[in-house]
Amino acid sequence: STDLDRCYYRPSWKSPKSLNFFPSLLQTENPAPSPGSAFRPEDEIEQLTKKMLYDMENPPSEEYFGRCARCGENVVGEGSGCTAMDQVFHVSCFTCMICHQKLRGQPFYAVEKKAYCEPCYIGTLEQCSVCAKPIMERILRATGKAYHPHCFTCVVCNRSLDGIPFTVDAGGNIHCSEDFHRKFAPRCSVCKEPIMPAQGQEETIRIVALDRDFHVLCYRCEDCGGLLSEGDNQGCYPLDDHILCKGCNSARIQALTAKASTDL
Q: Stretch 102-117: mean pLDDT, rounded?
């Protein structure tokens, strides 16, 4: 076959294809219906049959490569057409769907059998709400916005939260669960550490007594150190703003009573 110039394109990231000027081969396509018409399947078959019979009886004087997917006319003559996206086009018909720039020898993107030049294709893409650059590949949607997966990060530790549980504060800032709890969780009145779920957990128990917050393991009698959440000492018996078990509460009351009697 004759050496021909070549067109090239940059495929979409999903579907790499090639684009070449026609070699010497016979290729037919279904005739394109005129705008606004609606064909039944049998009508389309009948029209195609008539076209094939006509082409057989009246062969073109030059090489015939098929029908242009854009204008529906025959593509005849070497160098007059090209193939792209498994379709046949006149070179003059193979243009960007938006700006109509000819795509011969230019990079283009194929989207649902439609071709776009690179600037027009990029102009159709959503922009990342963080970096404001077009999202060329996978889009991550969260909080009603679009993100590059690598741009969707915790505002505290900057870790990517793609596929990881996250929390949004009242200001709309995105946090990983750990940093959110460290920042906003109530703090234990005994150890002063945040009361937050253990690693891999989503919930935890917070004990509130005398308007103070406690971890379960920090909720102990101030005198004997016994846990007030389990066992014989279960339950809090406060006295003078002190957290006490029942036994230590009674002992303090007896001590105060004895002291009062002595003072008299």
A: 85
Greater model confidence, 183 or 232: 183
Which tokens hold the place of 191? 């150890």
Write the DSSP symbol of residue 231: G
Q: Where are the alpha helices (DSSP H) in the chain?
A: 41-57, 118-124, 177-184, 246-263
Q: Which two tokens stand for residue 84?
A: 């792209």
Model confidence over 136-148: pLDDT tens digits? 888 899 888 999 9
- Alpha carbon distance 102, 201 (integer Å): 57
Which among 195, 177, 179, 198 is positioned nearest to 187, based on CA atoms?
A: 195
Query: What's the length of the chain?
Result: 264
Residue located via tokens 């920090």: 218
Q: Report the distance separating Cα 225 and Cα 8, nearest Å.
A: 79
Output the pLDDT for position 188: 92
Q: Are 224 and 248 in contact (CB under 8 A)?
A: yes
Eight-class DSSP state of 115 = E
